[in-house]
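Appendix B. Extra example for self-study. Work through it before the problem class; the solution is given directly after the inputs so you can check yourself.
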Amino acid sequence: MARKLSLRDALREAMVEEMRRDETVFLMGEEVAEYDGAYKVSKGMLEEFGPKRVIDTPIAELGFAGIGVGAAMNGLRPIVEFMTWNFAVLAFDQIVNNAAKTLSQSAGQFKCPIVFRGPSGSAGQLAQQHSQMFESWLANVPGLKVISCTDPADAKGLLKSAIRDDDPICVMESELLYGYEDEVPEGEYLVPIGVAAVRRYGDDVTLVSFNKMMLPTLKAAEELAKEGISAEVIDLRTIRPLDIDTIVESVKKTNRLVVIDESWPFAGVSAEIAYRIQKYAFDYLDAPVTRINAADTSLGYAPTFVEEYLPNPEKIIRAVKEVLYVVR
Amino acid sequence: MVAEKKKSPVKKNQPAYSKEQYLQWYELMLRIRRFEERALVAYGQQKVRGFCHVYIGQEAVAAGIESALKPGDAIVTAYRQHGTAIGRGVTTQAAMSELFGKATGIVKGKGGSMHFFLAENKYFGGNGIVGAQIPIGTGIALAEKYKGTDNLCVTMFGDGAARQGALYESFNMAMTWKLPVLYIVENNGYAMGTSVARTSNVQELYKIGNAFDMPSEPVDGMNPESVHEAVSRAAEHIRAGKGPYFLEINTYRYKGHSVSDPARYRSKDEVEEYKGKDPVKTTEEKILRLGLATEAEIQEIKDAIKAEIEAAVKFAEESPYPDASELYTDNYTQKDYPFIRD
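Solution. Structure tokens for the complete assembly:
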């Protein structure tokens, strides 16, 4: 049986279920308790679990991220919420230099089972400092796993897997899609980390995306279908480790690939996919791998900038027609 | 606030602690000293590579902390950590092998001089990022409180780290949540080549605790008794559920910041003054003066430690380097993690 749930409700269910299941799981972050979460993801959790397990922190990202790392090294399983990943930049020392390296530098003596989560990416006219996507930064770091998924059912199953995982995991959500609803199964289930999902089957071109860019990507696929172009759409769900096999299999069938990625283009997720497809599907490609990224700029405030900056169905459709040599 | 001071039990001509305690301090300090002196020789021979920050001069801090703790307590510190790690129970054999980068090292050749760990004795390691261990130690303490133990976490750092933002964030949360954490700044006077006086208007570091109403006090770090007393007093406060405590333990490193630092920023007179307070030498003199051991017994300890360190070097020399394939282990707990290899 499935019911419709918003992304925020699905994420909350994941945390609540895992906290009921395991006493060592707790949530900490700015406004997560008494305020019910800046985006209401943790609504009602203080009431159920009390202030020992749902902890409001002062505005001190570096400090509370490090407290999470220490608690994880000492036997707990913290979920650290960042109000946005933009603010988590202050905590990158703890994420990159400590969480990611604890297991290696202690040669396996100490694990760091921690989840860092919060919204990533642009969210309207929020200007330069509040519009960044950090998937590529974090996925560059060995020791971390990076999940970026906004489908409510999958986000729930992935967050539950992340909480149970013994490695440090960054979970990238979306401010704009916390209210996005879709079907979520009832009952206990997990979604495996590191496995992409094929959202739509097709033969003419493969579209790969993740997080909220899945929406314009699926929209483009729908529009293309009306013109007789059949697109296969893959949702990465996990950025690190990347499920390249699913993409290679698809490209072997379609012979064309367009990657839609809200990260900046330089050395990003789309660049990594393009490298690996030329390596493992070279003989199958009938056109260069093409990508639609966010603009290689900071994002200014005005609506015209937002429109220009982000991938959208029109840009995706045009890219598909280019790789199909329908337009030049 | 400055914590209320109790009268020191140390009197000049009678032992304040047992013979066993003095000998235990002396033996640990001497072990650390000889270990590091030998490590420096091996460094000169290029058998030890990378960064190597020695603790020579600061041994009384490690000794006095260890004797004041109970099993179950945790320690986390920075990268000048050979002494603390040996105090926690890392053997000189496993430590020397680690410096040599060998598979038999305490972390299998993965950490080197800055990163020893010993989970079974709750040694949470040497951290290489100045001040990063301050929030981590605070989190280790949070986990103890969460689990309902009466354990505490000693979170050690240098005077340089006292200027990092992570300290202020951690002090604030630890006091707000009354966490069982003992913060110890080992003030050796210099953050690499920059003296404490040049880094802040506030030079008495214990005063930083005042902004958080954290009980704080300065401590003489050149003898294990005063360190032991202060740590015991702080631990009692913390175990009573009153929250964190901050000690500024004033000490001195006789060598440069690291092997490559000739320490020209210090005067000869200053170094000589502190050498007169050498904790290994003064503790030895005290043991003899108080008749806690004979010259022959002291010589026996010296000989045993010398033999132990030489055996550690031999063990390290003869041990193999880790197999290159070990590069791919311990990055993830997941055994089949799909590393990118092209």
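Self-check: The two ends of chain A are 47 Å apart (CA to CA). If your reasoning did not lead you there, revisit section 3.
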